[in-house]
Amino acid sequence: xxxxxxxxxxxxxxxxxxxxxxxxxxxxxxxxxxxxxxxxxxxxxxxxxxxxxxxxxxxxxxxxxxxxxxxxxxxxxxxxxxxxxxxxxxxxxxxxxxxxxxxxxxxxxxx
Length: 111
What we know:
This protein is an all-beta fold. It has no helices and 11 strands. Strand 7 and strand 8 form a beta hairpin. The termini are close together.
């Protein structure tokens, strides 16, 4: 796996702290010495305010269509159920579910 040692993190909330319109969208389902696992749920029209992720692996439990806003682009993507993704460095984005079904993700962060 990859190391999560970071010298500086953005002055933004992490995925657990970030929400949408004052409501939490991610819940910690496991937090151990080795990893933290979050379950994030986005009904249609619900997003995730601008936040950062440490290096992580993600799994799409239930897919939908999302608008993703990052520093260098805005795009809409269909995220299929069963899709796995990863990032080996700190990333920053904001998302909103623009689809017609609820999207559910597991985010696994090695410690």
